[in-house]
Amino acid sequence: MCFPCCARLPACHCCRAATPGVDRRFTASRIPPCRIVSPRPLGVRRAGLVERGARVTLYERENTLGGRLAGWQTELSDGSHVTMSRGFHAFFRQYYNLRGLLRRADGGLGMLTAVPDYPLQHSGGLYDSFAKVPRTPPWSAAGFAALSPTFGWRDMTRMDPWAALPLLDVRVPEVYEQLDSVSAYDFLAGIRFPEAAHHLAFEVFSRSFFADPRELSAAELVLMFHIYFLGSSEGLLFDVPDEPFSQALWEPLSAYLEGHHVKMCVGTSVDTVEPDPSGGHRITAGRRAEHFDATVLALDTPGLQAVVASSPHLADASWRDRIAQLRTAPPFLVSRLWLDRPVRADRAGFLGTSGYASLDNVSVLERWEGEAARWAARTGGSVVELHAYAVDPAADRNAEQERLLDQLHRVYPETRDARIVDARHEWRADCPLFPVGGYEDRPAVRTVDPTLVIAGDLVRTELPVALMERAATSGFLAANALLERWGVRGQVLWTVPRSGRSRLMRLLAGLAS
Ligand SMILES: Cc1cc2nc3c(=O)[nH]c(=O)nc-3n(C[C@H](O)[C@H](O)[C@H](O)COP(=O)(O)OP(=O)(O)OC[C@H]3O[C@@H](n4cnc5c(N)ncnc54)[C@H](O)[C@@H]3O)c2cc1C
Q: Where in this chain does the record put each Amine oxidase domain (predicted)?
C-alpha cells in the first residue's frame, strides 16, 4: 500500500517491498492469536496485523495508551482540568510510515497542524531558521550554510572538506560500519565545523536523541543529516497534534483498533514471555498465563530488559545478554508552566535553544494546542513548556527545575514578572541511548525465534528512520515478519532513500573512500 502523500513526493522511496505473499486476510480457521505488548506506535503492530485479520491482544503496563506520548488528566490550582504529557513532539514530514498509521484514524491527518518554522537561538545572539532554506537537495544543505549566520566565509575556509565528504552520500546501513565507532562530537570536530554551527544546528540534532554528543554515535547524527538535508525534500519543517496526544491520537486510534476487534488490556504489565513447547509463547500478564502463536515486544528499554530478564528461555542467551546491556540516555526534564500573563505575541510556538545551560527548547503551547489555547484565552495567561535533555543524573532536581526557569527568563524576559499559576515537572530516563560502537548490539526486528519480533525506537531497522518514525517503521516491519510466516502480504513501507540522492554528491563522497 502506498500512502497518497508519499506517491507525490520525489524524495520518497519504497524501501522494502511488502512481505512476499498473497494479498489476503487470514481465513477464519487460520487466524493466529498474536500477542502485542505496548501501545506505541499504536497501530503499528496492530494495524499491520489486525487489518490482515489476525486476532490481536494488546498489553499496556500504564493505565493509558501512548507510551512516551501518553497524556493524563491533572487539576491546576485555579481549578482547571488539563492534560499533562511529556509535551512537545515534532511530527516531521519525512515520517511517512507514522503518518500512514495516523491516517488510519483520520485520512486527512486533520489532527496535525503545521508549525511555520524551526527556529534556533544561541545565547550568544545568533539565530537560525529553516523556513526560508530551500528544501530540494543539495540546495537544502547549501542554502542552510549560505543563510545561516553560524557559517561565515572565514569559518568555511577553515573546515576540512575531506572529513565532511561522508555527509554527501549517507548509505544505510553502511553508515554504521563507517561511523558507529566515532562520537558525534569527534566527527564534527574533525570537520572543523564553525563552533557556532556545531552548537546550534548539530548539537540540537544530537540532543534530540537525549544524549551528550560525546557519547552519541556519529552514525546517528549523520543519519539525521541525511534524513533532513540531503535525503529528502521536506526539510526541517514539522507538524504537531492540535490537541493533547490522548485526544488527537490515542482515542481515535484505539477506536480504530477496537473496530478491528483488538483486545485491549490497558494497565496490565507483561511479566514473562516463555517459549511454549507446542510453538509460540506462554505469556504471563496480570497474574494470568495465556498461549499465543506469536509475540511482538514493543517496549521501552527498561520494560524490554525487565521482561527478558524474567524470561530465561526467550530467544537465545547471547540475545538476552545484549538486551541486558542496552543503555538508556541520561534523565531529562519537561517542565510545563501555566503563567498568569502571555508571552510576547511574536514568540514562536517552538524554539530550539543552545548555550542556555540545560535548556534545549521552549514551546508556547497555546500557539498550536487547542486545550492550551482555550486555557490561555480564558485566563489571559500562557502555557509554556521547557525541555532539558541529558541532565546529570546526580543533579539536584529542584535546583535543575529552578535553573531551567532562570533560562526561560533569559530567553523570554517578559516571563520574569509572570506569576506561575501552576507547574508540572516530569523527570524520566527511558529513552534509548545509541552509544559509540553500540549498533551491533541493538536488537533487530527479527530474533532467532521466528515467532518473536521486536519493535520500538531502540530497534535496529537498517533504514533511514529515527525516533517516532523508527518506532512506527519497526512496528510495521515486525508485523510484516509475522505475516510472512503465514504467507500473507504485509505493509509496503516508505523511507527517504537509503543512499545519497545526487549523482554528483555520490561521486564526491566516493573520493573520501
Ligand atoms: C520529551 C520527549 C520529546 C520527544 N520529542 C520527539 C520529537 O520531537 N520527535 C520524535 O520523533 N520523537 C520524539 N521523542 C521520542 C519519541 O517519544 C519516541 O521515539 C517514541 O515515543 C518511541 O515509541 P516506542 O513505541 O518505541 O516506545 P514507548 O513510547 O516508550 O512505548 C513503550 C511502551 O511499552 C510499555 N511497557 C513497558 N513495559 C511493559 C510491560 N512489561 N508490559 C506492557 N507494557 C509495557 C510502556 O508503558 C510504553 O507504553 C521524544 C521523547 C521525549 C521523551
A: 49-483
